[in-house]
Amino acid sequence: MSELGDLVEYTSNVPSGYITKALDLTRTLALTTTVTPQFTLPLATISSIITVAQNNQDSAFSALKTISNTANVTSLFNAAVNAQATLNYYSLLQEQATQTSLATETSFISKVAQASAVMNKVVYETPFYGGNPPNISSNGALVAIFLIFCILHLILGIFYRQTWFLVCWVIGLFLEVIGYIGRVLSSRDIMGLGPYIMQSTCITIAPTLMMAGIYYIVGQVTVIYGQQYSLLKATRYSKIFIFCDVVSFLTQSAGGGLAATASNGEMGRHLLLAGLAFQTVSMVFFQFLWFYLIINIFKAWRSDRVPPFNPEYLHIRERGVLPYFIVSVSIAVMLIFVRSIYRLAELAEGWDSKLTIDERYFMVLEALMIVLATFCMTVLHPGLAYGRNANLVVKNQTATTQEDAPYIYPTNKDYDYYGRKFL
Length: 423
Hints:
Blueprint: H1 5-8, H2 16-23, H3 43-64, H4 70-97, H5 102-124, H6 136-160, H7 163-188, H8 193-225, H9 234-259, H10 265-303, H11 314-317, H12 322-349, H13 354-357, H14 359-379, H15 382-386
Helix pairs in contact: 3-4, 4-5, 6-7, 6-14, 7-8, 8-9, 8-10, 8-12, 9-10, 10-12, 12-14
């Protein structure tokens, strides 16, 4: 094949990134290296390479006539384009090698150099996102949405003095903004490594920081109602799960960086997968403890006209927002959990899976889940539930007097209200 005409009929089923790649065969590229006038490759070797490339291209075109699956069509289309780039370069080398006139041979130098640059670009550069550029409108809208949420959390966190939650969620939302800016930039340059790293790393690790903020809430709810309803002591929630989050965060950060490089792409994917799997398992354990706590609180509220809740934080419970806040936290955790399951499945299937390259899955199972979770934690912010002057300190509770014990918390700090030993 000497022209692109034979490829045109297959472009309707090929992602635009690969069509752009094919068009690179016709472009003049700026040469960044000095061209050497000596090409020492033997003529027999050049002829052999041309024969192999031609056979590969013929095989690709034969298969394209019988295959309709989009993924297979894309792969074969890409193989035909790569073969054409190889043919263009080595055909010029062959023609130069057969020249007897030094002047004529020298005139081929710039042509060969240009063909070499095109071949290197076409063969060795692969478009990200499976060749499907991210939608600029939807990703641009998400930049604006997460930026608004970020500003709101900054204001609410400062006003209500929720320092830990503020830090975790503002940083997490800021990473979401950076990540979706990366996707907007990728929509204009699907080959760009920088924007791809921005989106793959930031969007992946941002929910880890959001969960770190939520993990602290379970300790706060424990002390508001009473430690007797919990399986763990109040301070242990943040210690255990924030440690898990740090491990997950570091693993995913390292994986995100490696995944964007050609040489360590698979290693990076495995690290990302390990970090997400660890985060997902820790979230399962957290949800068990969280729902155990709130179910016990609900049972106590239903069974006693005056439930034995911690009187120190009666002023928080009297605000009336706390039950709705607990429901909101539960919904947010489940939404982030669904998102984590999606990312696990996506990475397990590989970079070329349908879950990875079809942006519709990403928009519903990643973007929408995090937007809804953020909406829950903004509309029912911890500060709105506790109040500005809550003076809420997460600490292990112990009874101060014998009279308090049956109604508030255990006399022995190692046992709960029902006589069960804390974990």
